[in-house]
Amino acid sequence: MDKKTIRDLEVTEKKVLVRVDFNVPLKDGKILNDTRMLKVLPTIKYLQEQRAKIILMTHLGRPKGTVVPEMSTKPLALRLSGLLEQEVLFAADCGGAESHKITREMRAGQVALLENLRFYPEEEENDPAFAKSLAALGDVYVNDAFGSAHRAHASTEGVTQYLPAVAGFLMEKEIYVLSQTLENPRHPFVVILGGAKVADKLFVIENLLKRADYLLIGGAMANTFLKAQGYDLGISKVETDKLALAEQLLEQAQKVRVKVVLPQDVVVAKEFAAEAEAKVVSVQDIPKEMMALDIGTATVQAFEQVIAQARMIVWNGPLGVYEFAQFAVGTNKIVEAVAAAPGKVVVGGGDVVAAVEKTGLGAKIYHISTGGGASLEFLGGKVLPGVAALLDK
Length: 393
Ligand code: ADP
Ligand code: MG
Fold this sequence. Notes:
binds magnesium ion, 36% helix
């Protein structure tokens, strides 16, 4: 997938409308983590060097089409101004009178940020008139918000009807790396899947079965597969309406000779709680009144062996309830294993990325995707509307 990028466009003295994903965690007006902002700095700095006029727009939280003052992007303008060491203008609307006035008067190299796109119901409705009013702010459009690319919204898709649309550097890297895993994976190619949302992820397994050599399954995801194989899971989280599909996928894997490694042991407890009393049991011996909350030690070792030989690894979803230290052990061990592995490692998914970042080993990983849902849909072979809408090379 080759999309035009900001390098392919003349941007000097032009008004460049850039969709970013500054959807940072906020508490009482304070930004708890600005990673998402840092990731877009290369694009902003490049545009500054090219002496463009840079107009940034993002969503923040879920205000659901109304003005929620606590979700204003104004504090983000302030933080960005600190990061860039220069003033960042703030426009209190999106395509209205104020943003038009501010952007009209901008000088080359200046940066402005618009108010929260999701204060307008038209954003998520992909309303053409709203998209057109956004487009009227710029001469060209850049999408650097991979995390929002799976949504056809006015700022990700609608706007591209009216302006030449290209990828920013973050978007470019995400597309490049994720395409590599689908189009040209190195073998052995190992896919690790965990997390909770089996129903949402089965299509990803289906797509990756065509390419992978190994599929390692943990987390609540594994419970459904184990149940499909006839094990008694006690009171574990199981998606009972997906058992038939899980069984089909296991059969399919066998047909195409993908080795599926399911947990052979799990950490169980009587309740879903940080302090619950826990023990490791083999999957044949899960007590009726207990639930599986992490992969066990033998499973960790089995996973480690496969990971050590891998030349490419894709990982989505934590392997246990990593929010509780006691049930984060399996996930953490596998983070260590992939960080030490010789192969290229790509990690995607809101929770698994949080789990990796908690360990402090993020820097040892080839690519940590900024898109949870977007990376999943990409790996599942779906066309992302925000990517499809960009100009081809
Ligand atoms: P990601 O965001 O990485 O795609 P998901 O959102 O699918 O991952 O799943 C993350 C959630 O799965 C976490 O909140 C975690 O506690 C939960 N989880 C993982 N393993 C289990 C398990 N064995 N039982 C219940 N919940 C689990
Ligand atoms: Mg999640």
